[in-house]
Amino acid sequence: MLVDQFGREVSGVRVSLTDRCNFDCVYCHNEGLGDTRGPMEPQDDEMDTDDVVRFLEVAHEFDVEAVKFTGGEPMLRDDLAEIVRRTPDGMETSLTTNGTYLPDRAAELVDAGLDRVNVSQDALDPEAFAEVTKSGEYEAVIDGVLAALDAGLDPVKLNMVVFEATAGYVPEMVQHVAEREGLQLQLIEYMPELAGRPEWAIDIERVHGWLEDIALRVEQRSMHDRRRYFVEADAVAAATDETATDRFDTDGEPDGSGVGMVEIVDPVENEDFCANCHRVRVTHEGHLKGCLNRNDDLRSMGEMTKPEIRDAFREVVHNRVPYYGEYMVKEDGEWTINEEYIGTPPTSEGGRETAESD
After folding, report:
1. Is residue 354 one of the residues assigned to a domain?
2. What is the helix (H) or strand (E) element at residue 201, kind and residue range?
3. Residue among 137, 72, 128, 130 nearest 102 (CA)
4. How many domains does the chain have?
5. Is residue 183 part of a domain?
6. Which of 61, 198, 217, 256 gets the most CB atoms within 10 Å of its CB?
7. Is the pLDDT of residue 119 over 80?
8. What is the largest CA-CA distance in the chain?
9. What is the pTM of this model?
10. Which residue range is the domain that position 153 belongs to?
11. Residue 93 sits in a domain of what CATH number?
């Protein structure tokens, strides 16, 4: 397993299959790339099926244990099931999606070997959902979550970005996952350096505090120093003076006494978050990058031959840096890039030697 200069083993990869998306979410750093044409073959600027599989085979050589397929919207690729099917044995496969294509494809993906799915859902009201996503596909997302559960992708994690426009919907989303078995919730801190609009950011500690007040129990995950809250639906209803109600159009009647798991993904002021990151990322164009929030360290995998992929992988792992606190430093209340990490030429031979040490 490759190890970077800060002792972090690279055990996972995130592979973007496209930057196209059928949504146009206001907080997304790909805002404006809405594409509603539906699943299709890879485009000219996207890695093809064989390229993706070849990269995963190399990652498997380096003992990478898990891959998450992302986008854009990865389900706009009609070869997604084939990619999942051809992922090396023993590598866990997961998917982050907006869910609109899951009703027709969830069973196929599970048959191909998909292990887990995250579905982006920022509101439970169709109008609020449309305001955030610039999409009228609310019902398709709900149906997609149900299809994922029916196909055996349990638990389904709902991803909700928490910022000014969505913060008021957090209680009903927490109640929602507590009412319905098989759902979990990830509340994701808004990162203005990705999407701009710093005025949209909220104090995520307020959300932590509210959940801690009503939770049955709290767990502290060592990975990224994340907190998990286990919350009863009745506790949310009592805290908000609302009655627990099932958000799915199903025959089952919830009794309001379920327990939901809520995890907060909060990297901005969390120094341990990046210090415990064990993933590198691949862009849809076939570039490796050491961090989601950096684009100055992109490393092309060339013609995607295995020797080229191996060299690029070793180099990117070696050149990874911490993000907040070192790569980014705070000056006058604003995060700015630490110039120490900019313009340093990549090291190849040294990178390979360090990265190969176990």
Report:
1. no
2. none
3. 137
4. 1
5. yes
6. 256
7. yes
8. 62
9. 0.85
10. 12-274
11. 3.20.20.70
